[in-house]
Design goal:
Elements (H helix, E strand, L loop, with lengths): L1 E7 L4 H12 L4 E7 L4 E6 L3 H10 L3 E7 L1
Antiparallel strand pairs: 1-3, 1-4, 2-3
C-alpha cells in the first residue's frame, strides 16, 4: 500500500536523510521517497500508521497526516 505522510520540522537535506533512513529500517517498508520541499514522504509499506508515525517522531519530526494514495 502506498501512503503519503505529511511531516513538519524538516529543514535541510540531513533531516530528509534521517526520515528516509528511519522509514527504510521499519519492517514492511519496501520503498521511501522524502521531499523537503513538499514536506512529505511517499512510502510503499504494509506497516500501520502508528508504526510510521512513531519512527518519524522518534527522529524529532512531527507527523501532521497520513493518507493512502
Amino acid at each position: 500500500m502506498k501512503k503519503k505522510i505529511l511531516i513538519e520540522g524538516m529543514s535541510c537535506n540531513k533531516c530528509v536523510g534521517h526520515v528516509k533512513e528511519a522509514l527504510e529500517d521499519l519492517d514492511g517498508v519496501t520503498s521511501v521517497e522524502v521531499s523537503l520541499e513538499g514536506k512529505n514522504a511517499i512510502v510503499e509499506t504494509t506497516a500501520n500508521d502508528e508504526a510510521l508515525k512513531e519512527v518519524i517522531e522518534e527522529e524529532g519530526y512531527d507527523v501532521v497526516k497520513i493518507e493512502v494514495l
